[in-house]
């Protein structure tokens, strides 16, 4: 019972949902359980403690919400802000755009700082706005750490510096959907107030769990935030945390055990090694793109993303055709160009529990597709460039030495 | 990696999450997929078409939302109503209470009709209110079809009759969380405007999908409803339905395939046969309770629930101790008494993909536990009463004749 | 993709293959692996060490052979005996009969000691034969520890006593297919030379692994045994054991991980507790049979089996009809009567990873079926008798106290 | 619970056990069942009918034996031959050597025709022997269709021609372990008398099922064959086939459902397309080897294998080190060189449910390893050569057009 089955393994290189490792699939292969028995709280307790590590926070309070990234956004905003609040938000691609759309529909007063797609958040404008806001009317800065549509990573440490420089008390809300657990992310060090991700991204789980982490300051803000909320209300969770039963409504038993397994794998590999692996995969992909003679949608090295690469195709090629052929002929799943870059870029997601040889299979596939659609690529060129780098940099697998 | 493992199979008789049948577990045992490939929309299309059958609607529009029942409630309310709207709601147990709490927090003006816990919705009072409301200020009637805390099933056909009798245009919103797919439910015939359930109930899936179905009148109402909503906004779904890509944000691939398998099993058995099976299980449970000399929390036969039975224990027994022992000694999961009936009732959930012999194992277990806690039950009495009925009524398994 | 699906869970009470616990199903839910990598030998090493514990041996050498119980028999015989060798074998039911058939076809000179079906091995005759055999022409005693067709457990300690009493050097070969891991079995203490079981019995795995354990004396015998053998030759294993690669041919990766999980569960529960649980299940079943007014096929208490109970039906009932109805109407799988007792007995298997409430569901089912086929059973009577015993004897689940 | 886990997916390119496709893993993810219920025979019936298609036979009788390839060999030999029978066998690599060892230990009189490893069976010598054997003392020709150790495919049609040319009645026994379901194999057309394979090879299942198919002439031979056999005796199967219960002893329920799923996938793709896919994979691998400047162990194109390629390394490199590094650094599983070619070749298995991009990932990995061990490979060269061919030859995926 597969829809449109193809022989061999599907090569899943969209930037989410990503490949689930077998041990996680196994952990979720189970019947339901009574979530009010002592077992589920005992399990949950370990998850809440351990999930903080992937945010690099000790002071944060995590929430494992049965929702998607979109719901996690809503949770972050409605628990900390009130309708009419002024917030600053950066529009740099499709996902930041969608978040801004949500912010506006939730009735916040959004001051949008727009960049060309392919560029990072304009932090100079932010600095000037913060400098000017001596009255502290700006209640929050909302920023996407890694814009999945363009493969752009923003400099969060710099945002914190700006706020600190001006002693500005705005909340610092971060979408870490395609960064947390894959890119360097430091909630406590960077003074992030709410950070969030989705289970189907670097954690390599199925979709269905929005993971939101709130700083003490964010929790404090939630006491006075007037946005109407029930399902997403942190307070309902906090009440059950206190009781030790943890769940205001039914969680997915399977995702809880899946998260346990996913965290175990990450800690076994070492979170820093996981991040290092993503760095290798990102670098290898960019070297291949360069070897193909194609442009990275991301305009400067400082914004290069180690979880997704958006590749610009020549004007005479429709990038959607590349994605279609990848799936129809090679059982390869690539990401489409979205909105402004539709037809102009295709995306290679290289995040989650994936290794170098998987990526190289994908890159070899992309080369053939490029040829299919009439781009004069030298077959093997991208793979060669990636291999040259990887062969020098892949470490031994720790458990096998 | 189980928390607090016990030998043999866990006997899961809480009224949700319920036992997942093996074919559904199998269907979900899979890697992620690109939800933007042609395969996922093709699958989704079949689901949206087929899921209408379990609501018995042809004119309704279903939404498969990555959320729980609580989120499904919020979706029903915020898409059809505006803050300040007057609604009538029935308080008859813990879940109707929670829904009312949500209605109030979402800023509706809730007129609560309360019944003693163990009794159904007071439809006479409803009738008088509807009769009096000639100005049609009441915008919606909110009712829980089956109150899971007390095992009470309300008469939805009667609600429709009252509204029709007075020609009242109020929306008719129904929580079918512990009824749909198990009890007789007729969305079109009863003129229900929004009906909803959760995947972990009679559909026998993991938690994580709120299934909401909207009548044309509800969809019309959503165009003017002023409740703030983004994640739960039907309109975002409708836009993607039109495009044929179906998903405004990432669905759980596993739950989609799981729902496909769950629906296939239900249709193979026959929805009416599924409902008939629940009727047998409910009747058998009530006969056992009677044989034990205990009282059903539900005060009248007209409200007896075929999906959950709340059993009243004598005053000298703490029903929570029964639930604890069930789990600690017999690997049996029963439902606690909640709120007003905490300590006073325990609950046997008999919904979802479960058969008679599974129930009889549970009933035998309950008998031993009753004895454990000092209730002078005659061992075997409940099982005998249940068997006497079942032996005359279980049909042959169609595929095996 | 189930053949002849029925709603709810199949109640599997044949005496093998038995219910596989979820953690074992999970452990086997995996891709293949290279069995020549360092990982598989590392895993195998732990299995060979730990599997000895279920035989209660420290001096034995185990073999995990990709075969069934029938193959394990052949392995035991051909590695220790030569064509023409005289052996003593007991015919007490269908499985001992099949083993004897194999012994004869393998060209041994089999001296068969027959008992009425329902009685144990006649050890008095054995004693007289051993006493008479001062020339030590008898090379081996072959005995089924637990005859699965009649539910008869033989007294192995007594066999050892007889051999020791006469100082007879015959090899002591034991079929422990439906006993090991469920009944008290002591390879070293009882001086068993070859003991064997199959994965699908008390270990609660799928079929496919024959587990054979050889004493030093049996290994010594294998050096001169002249039976032709290749696939079943222990020597091929021993060569690979020495090399540390363990496998002369490809093992099932899934069964290796499954065995690891199965052993882990057994050790977590405690082997003695596992045996105790089987004792409870056997006793409870026999009490039910008695309450129904039916006879146990096993004629004396000393032979009662704690893993399978063969129930004699009145002459006017065809026991096969009971088994057919169980499956067709109640989704219950019972064991047929075999050969001499075909139509006369049906069998309840109560072995493996199964608990008391599962058994009680089965017993309730049997009561209804007995009524279906015209036997005047008092519904609830068997369950009552079983519960009366179990309620006093089930321990708390260790992990949940 | 993985032994020596590494991040990302294991790249399994040993020539068996091979990658199991997800739909097959899913189909096997199940509890045990009573194999004497009507469901298992109903399932078995479809398997026996359909498995004949992968042998391209209509007159053959298949046996699904719970064993490995080694056991399947023994089944083929002992059912058709008597000790002392003269047979002709070809020694061309490790697996033909092991089969010959078995033939000798089973007491047949084996006339071995040896070839240099890397060359195919010497059919000229066969022809001369057959020509000379006018007395028809040769009872059987035993040949490995595809020698997995060297990647050599023998010409079976030619063997048949030789036998026919001389009107020689010898049985024609074929080991198709690494060929059937992947290479062109025509049991009826080539007059093969016994053909066999193992589940873990091109069928892409776990190990544990030996699949043996016997021609009418082989069945006839089995009536007089005097080799001692019980577990492997076809006659026991045939008796149960007649009764319609099919199984003389317990089969693996999981492998039966797995085989059903595996056959369904093969028929969905089309057996000829499956063979074509293997042809592409084999050709692509050989082109890569050539581009690397390395030699194929197989000395002539007529013997090139499309399921496994043995690559000869320069004398200054130890091929075992390549296999070790593949696993330790790249999570890639390659095949060791065996026996005579140990240290001299490594093997790439490209059989079973695997696609082109998977292979390209493997080839890219091999390039890096070659560099690791000091071979001056041009990175990307093999992938380029493979892609140049594949890009012109991969068909669209039928279900996705």
Automatic annotation (TrEMBL), chains A, B, C, D:
<keyword id="KW-0032">Aminotransferase</keyword>
<dbReference type="InterPro" id="IPR015422">
    <property type="entry name" value="PyrdxlP-dep_Trfase_small"/>
</dbReference>
<dbReference type="InterPro" id="IPR015424">
    <property type="entry name" value="PyrdxlP-dep_Trfase"/>
</dbReference>
<keyword id="KW-0663">Pyridoxal phosphate</keyword>
<comment type="similarity">
    <text>Belongs to the class-V pyridoxal-phosphate-dependent aminotransferase family.</text>
</comment>
<feature type="domain" description="Aminotransferase class V">
    <location>
        <begin position="47"/>
        <end position="293"/>
    </location>
</feature>
<dbReference type="InterPro" id="IPR024169">
    <property type="entry name" value="SP_NH2Trfase/AEP_transaminase"/>
</dbReference>
<dbReference type="InterPro" id="IPR015421">
    <property type="entry name" value="PyrdxlP-dep_Trfase_major"/>
</dbReference>
<keyword id="KW-0808">Transferase</keyword>
<protein>
    <recommendedName>
        <fullName>alanine--glyoxylate transaminase</fullName>
        <ecNumber>2.6.1.44</ecNumber>
    </recommendedName>
</protein>
<dbReference type="InterPro" id="IPR000192">
    <property type="entry name" value="Aminotrans_V_dom"/>
</dbReference>
<dbReference type="InterPro" id="IPR020578">
    <property type="entry name" value="Aminotrans_V_PyrdxlP_BS"/>
</dbReference>
<dbReference type="Pfam" id="PF00266">
    <property type="entry name" value="Aminotran_5"/>
</dbReference>
């Amino acid at each position: 019972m597969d829809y449109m089955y193809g022989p061999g393994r599907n090569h899943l290189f969209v930037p989410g949902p990503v490949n689930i490792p077998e041990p996680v699939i196994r952990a979720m292969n189970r019947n339901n359980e009574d979530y009010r028995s002592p077992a589920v709280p005992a399990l949950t307790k370990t998850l809440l403690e351990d999930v903080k590590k992937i945010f690099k926070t000790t002071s944060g309070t995590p929430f494992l919400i049965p929702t998607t990234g979109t719901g996690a956004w809503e949770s972050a905003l409605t628990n900390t802000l009130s309708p009419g609040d002024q917030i600053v938000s950066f529009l740099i691609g499709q996902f930041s755009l969608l978040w801004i759309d949500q912010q506006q529909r939730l009735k916040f007063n959004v001051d949008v700082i727009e960049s060309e797609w392919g560029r990072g958040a304009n932090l100079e404008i932010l600095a000037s706005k913060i400098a000017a806001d001596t009255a502290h009317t700006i209640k929050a800065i909302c920023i996407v750490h890694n814009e999945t549509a363009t493969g752009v990573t923003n400099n969060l440490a710099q945002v914190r510096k700006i706020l600190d420089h001006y002693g500005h008390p705005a909340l610092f809300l971060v979408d870490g959907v395609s960064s947390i657990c894959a890119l360097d992310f430091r909630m406590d060090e960077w003074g992030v107030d709410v950070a969030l991700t989705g289970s189907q991204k670097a954690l390599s789980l199925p979709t269905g769990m929005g993971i939101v982490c709130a700083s003490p300051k964010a929790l404090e803000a939630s006491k006075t935030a007037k946005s109407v909320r029930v399902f997403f209300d942190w307070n309902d969770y906090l009440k059950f945390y206190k009781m030790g039963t943890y769940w205001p409504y039914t969680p997915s038993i399977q995702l809880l055990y899946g998260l346990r397994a996913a965290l175990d794998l990450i800690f076994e590999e070492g979170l820093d090694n996981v991040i290092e692996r993503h760095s290798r995969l990102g670098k290898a992909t960019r070297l291949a793109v360069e070897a193909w003679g194609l442009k990275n949608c991301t305009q400067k090295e400082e914004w290069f993303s180690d979880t997704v690469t958006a590749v610009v195709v020549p004007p005479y090629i429709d990038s959607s055709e590349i994605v279609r052929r990848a799936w129809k002929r090679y059982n390869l799943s690539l990401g489409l160009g979205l909105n402004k870059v539709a037809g102009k870029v295709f995306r290679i997601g290289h995040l989650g529990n994936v290794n170098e040889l998987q990526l190289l299979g994908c890159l070899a596939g992309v080369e053939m597709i490029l040829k299919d659609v009439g781009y004069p690529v030298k077959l093997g060129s991208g793979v060669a460039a990636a291999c040259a780098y990887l062969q020098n940099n892949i470490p031994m697998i720790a458990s096998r030495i």
